[in-house]
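Form 7-S
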Amino acid sequence: LHSFPRRSSDLASVTATDFGVWSPDQKSVSKHKISAKGLCCSWTNDGQLLAVGQFDGTVTVRAKDGAQKYVYMRGGPVWSVCFNPSTDENTDVLAVAAWDQTLVYYTLADYSSDKKPAEQRITGREKQLGMDPCSVRYFVNGEYMAVSGSDNKAHLWTKEGVKLQAICERDSWIWSVAPRPKQNYVAVGCNRSEEHTSELQSP
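Output:
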């Protein structure tokens, strides 16, 4: 899987054993080991830190040189991570969707710089979902987010973690969800490579 930051031309590539950051001005790419299969990744707004969600429930936040800055532990595979894209936020906020049926919001500023990464274990703001989440994505303004998964639905949430309404329902798991920038449309991807687009209705 791959991810571009919003403000640079770097490309992160995550595999089952490692990740690398590709840049146009570099002739070679350094690979950095991860503890389990990588399932998802997301860049901070400034493109300096990359969060990688893993099958063993670990979320590791790394600098471009591979140095681990933060680590979070969940109770199941982390299938989706996403940083809030809003430039109005004072700190980077990371949404983590894991197969312990939770959605958790972590604020990077909550961590103490005098601790080692392995000691960073705060809980974050946790929300129970009642289903296995497969995808979480913020809308472009960062005020709302779409969450989808094993209940065959895509849901609209606020950035504070308040569930508002169902956006759409399909006949199988919704593995991927993506709001259209500056539009009230959400694209979803389901089993059997099915793709659908739904218009977001007012609550």
